[in-house]
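Residues pack. Consider this:
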Amino acid sequence: TWFPLVDRNPQKFINIYTASDSDFQKANIKIYHDAVNQTKFILPILTK
């Protein structure tokens, strides 16, 4: 797979194929949950 080399997300509305390294910015991801509406996410385990 070419990910993440080809499908990088600069977190703004620009052409990702012409974006330079300075166009990319940090993103914050929020996960919401409460006692009734739980959230589940699965992360892979990477080994060296």
Notes: The chain has a mean pLDDT of 85.
